[in-house]
From TrEMBL:
Database matches in PANTHER family: ERGOTHIONEINE BIOSYNTHESIS PROTEIN 1 (PTHR43397)
RNA-binding found in the keyword field: no
Keyword Transmembrane: no
Entry's EC annotation: 2.1.1.44
Broad class of enzyme this protein falls into: transferase
Native organism taxonomy: Bacteria, Pseudomonadati, Pseudomonadota, Gammaproteobacteria, Cellvibrionales
SUPFAM superfamilies, sorted: S-adenosyl-L-methionine-dependent methyltransferases
The entry's keywords: Methyltransferase, Transferase
Histidine-specific methyltransferase SAM-dependent domain residues: 16-314
GN (gene name): egtD
Gene Ontology MF terms in the entry: L-histidine N(alpha)-methyltransferase activity
GO biological process, one term: methylation
Protein name: L-histidine N(Alpha)-methyltransferase
Cited Pfam families: Methyltransf_33
Length: 315
């Protein structure tokens, strides 16, 4: 069979303890990865279809439009690894052109991973797929049968923007280890731009981004034993120019006390929980981050307005 499933979902740290540490800090925060429970993953998929959320459309036109050039630089027969593969749709923009030896999607959402990987196996009769169920923040173990082949890591969607620059350097350094000596990384990075466009992209008129943000409270209730009520908070997102990032927060609409585990959290009306950063880079700024992680920037593609970029980085 051309489909293999590897369950590597260990206990990825103590989530409840991490949540409580953030919620009891002087400036309250939740790690952005808590946005992605099953409902959160579905809401994020809905975001990618929103007219205001330009990122996936731009990235698609860049990768699909240059897939032959990208493939010529990379060459066929790679093991193509995608950390955080979601619905595995982005890889299809270049699969035929790239002709990898195998595709290795890595995701925490077991059901979505299985269904998406099987869809690819059915659609591409020449393709071998090794799905790995794991948190891409933890260490990924490649199946032994693939160990000797050259690798290409694929990290689209500007997910790198959800790390601070220091975290991004540390993460990319680990990706550089994973891709190995003759390996490469193809990565999508959203660019610094007019703040009206950024504010609209994270404050869509259909309110889906607000639902995505508020859903984290439901996830917190489940994981850490909380009694947050979503309708007592509101979605706040804005571009912070001095940090070059869009910030998402949840703001308390009223004075209230929330219980999480053994903790009583007092919120005054207007108090916020910081739930996500989405950094926006210049091309030079991102290359500096990639180089600080040890990568060599081979090529950068971007759209004609300079809204989004795709970088090929070599070990
Ligand atoms: C996954 N990540 C790149 C998205 C972003 O744009 O930072 C998550 C997101 N947050 C709000 N809308 C989309």
């Amino acid at each position: 069979s051309r489909f293999h499933f590897h369950d590597q979902l260990g206990c990825s740290g103590d989530m409840a303890a991490e949540i409580i540490a953030g919620l009891t800090a002087r400036s309250r925060y939740l790690s952005a990865r808590f946005l992605y429970d099953q409902q959160g993953a579905a809401l994020f998929e809905a975001i990618t279809d929103l007219p205001e959320y330009y990122l996936p459309r731009m990235e698609r036109s860049i990768i699909a439009g240059h897939c032959n050039e990208i493939s010529a630089l990379i060459g066929p027969g790679r093991v193509l690894i995608e950390p955080g593969s979601g619905n595995c749709s982005k890889v299809e923009w270049m699969l035929e052109a790239l002709r990898p030896a195998a595709y290795v999607p890595v995701d925490v959402t077991r059901e979505q991973l299985t269904l998406s990987a099987q869809r690819l196996v059915a659609r591409y009769p020449w393709l071998e797929v090794h799905a790995i169920c794991a948190d891409f923040g933890s260490d990924i173990r490649l199946p032994g049968s693939l160990a000797d082949r050259p690798r290409l890591l694929f990290f689209p969607g500007s997910t790198i923007g959800n790390f601070t620059p220091a975290e991004a350097i540390a993460f990319l350094a680990r990706m550089r280890q994973l891709c190995g000596e003759h390996g490469a990384l193809l990565i999508g990075v959203d660019l610094y731009k007019n703040e009206d466009l950024l504010n609209a992209a994270y404050n869509d008129s259909a309110g889906i981004t607000a639902q995505f943000n508020l859903n984290v409270l439901k996830h917190v209730n489940e994981v850490a034993g909380g009694n947050f009520e979503c309708d007592r908070f509101r979605h706040v997102a804005f571009f912070n120019d001095s940090e070059s990032r869009v910030e998402m927060h949840l703001e308390s609409c009223v004075d209230q006390t929330v219980t999480v585990g053994d903790h009583q959290l007092v919120f005054r009306q207007g108090d916020r929980i910081h739930t996500e950063n989405s950094y926006k880079y210049t091309i030079a700024g991102f290359r500096a981050v990639a180089e600080a992680a040890g990568f060599v920037a081979r090529h950068t593609w971007c759209d004609e307005n300079g809204w989004f970029s795709v970088h090929l980085l070599e070990h």
